[in-house]
Amino acid sequence: MGQPVIKLEDVAFSYASGALLSDISLALSPGSFHFLTGPSGAGKSTLLKLCSMHLMPTSGAVRIFDQDASAMTRDQIARARQRIGVVHQDCQFLDHLPLHENLALPHLVAGQNMTASSDIDELLA
Q: How far is CA 44 from CA 3, 32, 47, in A?
């Protein structure tokens, strides 16, 4: 499948209340599809935030497109996020946009003009 898009190497994360994740290693390849399940408080959201660089690990390394996330600039992180898709269980639409524009929004953010796309029309059908 190629070089991993996201790679966590011995990652740990702690909040002020204590350690939540420890010794997490995984590699997510391009085009792969994953489900993350577990009980409330197990660290699912924290793991996703580490993978999307909304949080940085307490220890270990997060590599995105073979770059160390801790060494990336804000602009580099923003560009990398445009290339990674995450669908959260509680995803919500923006109330002020029509459904078609809500569905086109990720493409627009990625620099692709999808507002008139037949793909979105097909999805809606």
A: 24, 18, 5
